[in-house]
């Protein structure tokens, strides 16, 4: 797939487009997702910068998950579970352990060697689990960042009141979460329009969307951290725009 994600932010005075390629391949030396962000001058359309979109995507996606988690996770959350061990697993681990205080972090990946590599490369203690169910059972916050096309997280495993950030399965026919979890949780999304056209977890389960994350941030919808919650993240082009402008401004100030 080749995705094109243009956006303009008047507030940030920024115009960008992200080009992202997505390949399902066995070559582990090349990431499945590769991206480039082009930053333009909104006044005349001239190209100001070419940025590493893969780094921006990894960090902005994890940052949005962290915002959702701050709003939706249960009080006194102690156990973090990450399903997956790719680029997004690393970025989510970094920001979640920086912003929150978890007593335990568990990792599961289909290929155990990749999970062990992640655990050995980060600063804090990480438990590598032999099954997804083992990793999920009793977890307060769960992050799914996998290449799964059929559910790998099941509602009867999930602790009542837990919060799930569902980041993978970005196609209308792909799933990470089963129907039970989708229908028995309060569902938050980054974009209703995107979720109803791109997310197999939402489309195929028929789950009702309670709110966009922006509505919670603005205070027009409640967060409901006492409930079992799911945040379905698909990513929005404006997130890349804001992040790219932030990087460019810092670089410009240093030069």
UniProtKB/TrEMBL annotation:
<comment type="subunit">
    <text>Homodimer. Binds the thyroid hormone triiodothyronine (T3); T3 binding inhibits enzymatic activity.</text>
</comment>
<dbReference type="GO" id="GO:0047127">
    <property type="term" value="F:thiomorpholine-carboxylate dehydrogenase activity"/>
</dbReference>
<dbReference type="Pfam" id="PF02423">
    <property type="entry name" value="OCD_Mu_crystall"/>
</dbReference>
<comment type="similarity">
    <text>Belongs to the ornithine cyclodeaminase/mu-crystallin family.</text>
</comment>
<dbReference type="InterPro" id="IPR003462">
    <property type="entry name" value="ODC_Mu_crystall"/>
</dbReference>
<dbReference type="GO" id="GO:0070324">
    <property type="term" value="F:thyroid hormone binding"/>
</dbReference>
<protein>
    <recommendedName>
        <fullName>Ketimine reductase mu-crystallin</fullName>
        <ecNumber>1.5.1.1</ecNumber>
        <ecNumber>1.5.1.25</ecNumber>
    </recommendedName>
</protein>
<dbReference type="GO" id="GO:0042403">
    <property type="term" value="P:thyroid hormone metabolic process"/>
</dbReference>
<dbReference type="GO" id="GO:0050241">
    <property type="term" value="F:pyrroline-2-carboxylate reductase activity"/>
</dbReference>
<dbReference type="InterPro" id="IPR023401">
    <property type="entry name" value="ODC_N"/>
</dbReference>
<dbReference type="GO" id="GO:0005737">
    <property type="term" value="C:cytoplasm"/>
</dbReference>
<dbReference type="InterPro" id="IPR036291">
    <property type="entry name" value="NAD(P)-bd_dom_sf"/>
</dbReference>
